[in-house]
C-alpha cells in the first residue's frame, strides 16, 4: 500500500467510518499523514467497528477517537465537528455516511424514501454546514468532500431514490463550492463506481447488477474501498488546491464507455 504525507498535519473527520469505504477513508487518511482522524458512525459496531478502526489508526501514529453521531440529525453533526477542537479544528470533512434501500425503485415507499434522503442528502449538508462554520471561525482554508456515487451521475431504475439522493449530493457540492469558495474552503464530491463492500453485497438489486458492471468496467474488476480512500485523500489535501465543485469519478472507467 502506497503511503504519502499529502495530509500531513491535517485534522480529518470521516462519517460512516465504522465500516466499508468510510473505514478505508479513515485508515488511508492516517497512512497519508493526517495528524488526527475522527472516526464517526451512527453505531459503534455496524461491522468492523468504530473503536477498532480508531485503534488501528492510532497504531499508524495518528491521533484518533470514535464519536457516535447520526448524520441525519443537525445537532449530531454540530457536536461531531466540535470534537475536532481538541486537535485544533477540522481541516478535512469527509461526509461519507450513506445507505441503500431493499425497497428502492419507482414505487419506493414514502417512509423508506424519507429515511434515505435524511441520511444521504441531509447528512452531507448538515456535515458541511458544521465543518464550514468551524473552518471559518478558525480561519482555516479547509476541504469538504461529499460522498456521491456513479448512481448520482447516471440513473438506474432499481435505485430511483438512491440515485436521486446522490445526484443531489453532486449539485450540493457545486453549490457549496460557490458559496464557500470566497472563504478559501473547497467542496467536492466523489462518485465511486462498484466498490466491493458489505453495502454492495447486502443490496439485492445492486449485488445482482454488480457482475454486469464489472464486465463493462474497462479495468474489469470492482474497486477496493482503499482506492476511494486514496482519491478522497487527494481531494482533502493541498495537492488539489485549485479543485472545487467537481465530482470525481472513481469507477475504473465504467461511466466513460458506451
Ligand atoms: N459500495 C459501493 O459500491 C458504493 C458506490 C458508490 C457510493 N457508495 C457510497 O459510499 C458510502 C459508504 O458506503 P459503503 O459501501 O462503505 O457502505 P457501508 O454500509 O459499509 O457503510 C456505510 C456506513 O454509514 C453508516 N451510517 C448509516 N446511517 C448512518 C447515519 N444516519 N449516521 C451516520 N452513519 C450512518 C453505517 O453504519 C456504515 O458504517 C455511502 O454513502 C454509499 O452510498 C458506495
UniProtKB/TrEMBL annotation:
Presence of the UniProt keyword Flavoprotein in the record: yes
Spans traversing the lipid bilayer: 143-162
Gene3D superfamilies xrefs: NAD(P)-binding Rossmann-like Domain
A Pfam family assignment: adh_short_C2
Keywords, alphabetical: Flavoprotein, FMN, Membrane, Oxidoreductase, Transmembrane, Transmembrane helix
The keyword Cell wall biogenesis/degradation appears for this protein: no
Segments forming domain Flavodoxin-like: 158-258
Family, similarity comment: Belongs to the short-chain dehydrogenases/reductases (SDR) family.
Name this protein carries in UniProt: SDR family oxidoreductase
Organism of this sequence: Rhizobium bangladeshense
Lineage of the species this protein comes from: Bacteria, Pseudomonadati, Pseudomonadota, Alphaproteobacteria, Hyphomicrobiales
